[in-house]
Amino acid sequence: MLATHLHRWKSVALTTAAVLVGLTAPALTASPAAATTTAYDSTYYKNAVGKTGTSLKSALHTIISSQSKISYSAVWDALKVTDQDPNNTSNVLLLYSGVSRSKSLNGGDVGDWNREHTWAKSHGDFGEVTGPGTDLHHLRAADVQVNSIRGNLDFDNGGSAVTNGGGSLVDSDSFQPRDADKGDVARMILYMAVRYEGDDGFADLEPNEKVNNGSNPYMGKLSILKAWNEADPPSAFEERRNQVIYDTYQHNRNPFIDHPEWVEAIW
């Protein structure tokens, strides 16, 4: 009888443990991005570390607003360095499609690559002006035709396959990058929202929960961008790009590449 009771107790205990594991496992996989530390926390980010919400956003705005600016024509050569294919130094890696293409094929013809504003320049009407229009932290090399299909659409999930888009999707009011670029796009958009707050003659750029934002200084959808930031952490390519922009061109950083968890801390 005692053996029977022990057997039943062990069965209950094992079942209970299995249930507990089942309950706790999803919480681990759904948790926000883990806190990170960088070599810049005690220097570049020292006035931001430990803050959250509007205080963190304000501190980061002050930090990253100290930057050098380049002309729109200079962006061509800069992208040849920032977007260089790590496996072929003669090529650049194209946003959205993931294609590796010769650096020399920059231009406006079919088969060329051009300068994609991930924060569409019409959203806030800043065009190609030195400042938001030339900020390398949101400018990427992209296939001419794929760039044209994206146009000035907001970002959201869903749509039909983009021709030669590497898995990107598009519908009438939004664009979804391929999986490998989702986090990159999110962090570029949210960098712009922190960097440009309306205090330097440019529009106050902010993410929102809408599509069809038109010429308003908004970009959607924030909830989708946050999910993409979680699902696609910073890659080695993205981290190298951030470093090159900091070291060679603008001398400011995208804080969400260094600290992706700050997205959730602010929004």
Automatic annotation (TrEMBL):
GO terms for molecular function: hydrolase activity; nuclease activity. Residues 1-35 form the signal peptide. The keyword Nuclease applies. Keywords: Hydrolase, Nuclease, Signal. InterPro entries: Endonuclease-I (IPR007346), His-Me_finger_sf (IPR044925). SUPFAM superfamilies: His-Me finger endonucleases. The keyword Nuclease applies. PANTHER family: ENDONUCLEASE-1. This is Ribonuclease. It comes from Streptomyces adustus.
